[in-house]
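Fold it.
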Amino acid sequence: MYAQDGYCRLHIDHEREAPVGKARRGQRTDYGPGQAAARAGLSLGEWRRAVRSGLIQRPDVDGSRWSATVVERARGSRASIRTQLQVLAAPEYRWGTAPEHLLTRAQLAQTSPDRAVPLRPDGPIRGVVHYRRGRDTLYLYDVREAVPKREPTAAQTAAVERRKLAARTCAGCAKVADDRNDLSPTKRLCPACVAAFWTRKFTDDRQTAAAWAREVLDDPATVFLDTETTDLYGYLVEISVVDRHGQVLLDSLVDPRAEIEPGAQAVHGIGSADLVGAPTYAELSERLWAVLRGRRVIIYNVGFDIGVLRREVLRAAAELGPEPREAEDRDWGPLERSARWECAMEWYAQWYGEWDHYHRDYTWQRLGGGHRALGDCRATRERLVEMAASLAPAASAGQGQPALAGLDGDDRDVGDLHA
């Protein structure tokens, strides 16, 4: 018993229960239908309809009783269960076909010549309208069961005004906009703060890429690799490797033992006549991997060139007889792990700063190395030298801000970007 507001009230603290799944001494661990309904705050009829419709799990103890976990879960969502039961029992209408006395909450709140005061629902849901091809739903209430809306208190009115003001206040500079739609929808920033955010992001990303380039050029283990191939998914016709100073470590044509596609030949200019007497990959592989083993290998579009090397390794392994899966693990895996592979194309795109809002990433840029392996190696190194040269202890405010281009869906083939 405790006293409140001048009278005594029997106090039963139903809310201070043990956490779900942990029964206190004397607390039930399972419930029958009536006990479960009472504990969940539902009528027995509501409980049974909710179980039949799948809103509440079927009995999970001895086939006829419910565990405390299920009942407590239903207790926590009883308002949603009641709403769903009303929806299941209400007739469905198409847009514009519901009876005139069935209105939405927004329609009840509006005044009209025959309704001077706004109303609110005081009865169950009497109808459901699906629209936008069933993706959205409106609930309908009987206007005859509605009651006048209560006038908001001063505190409620003040709270609404505060929320409206907060919705129009920039989260960055705290300036109040004339309309909430003037702010960005996700971060609630004004145009000036949005521009400052992107400028800061581009500047930071550019400096991060420049710092990476500086680190790569300072690393004695760095080498640059490039290949030319028979086609987009073909075999080697040329491969080159240079060190961080641009000195050539390997530069060789390669006999692919396969046809060179006319499109590929038009790009790099290497034909079958040029490959007479050139070594095959098998003859060149020992020298190649002696150059790459333990190195930090920088490639412009690393996925393309790694794919080429992998195909060469697996083809050479297949000629020796092992199964493809065995060759993958035994031959290609150790070679791939023997070096560190990094993509200069992605870092250069970040440094260049052409943002694609559709893909929410930086746009890859063409290398412009002349479509020969040695020229592309040197061009990749030159891009890193250019990036590293822009590294500054404190970036200026305008540095790194790109022209926001590339928004017209310029879809380039990855193979084209390799050049």
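The CA atoms of residues 214 and 388 lie 5 Å apart.
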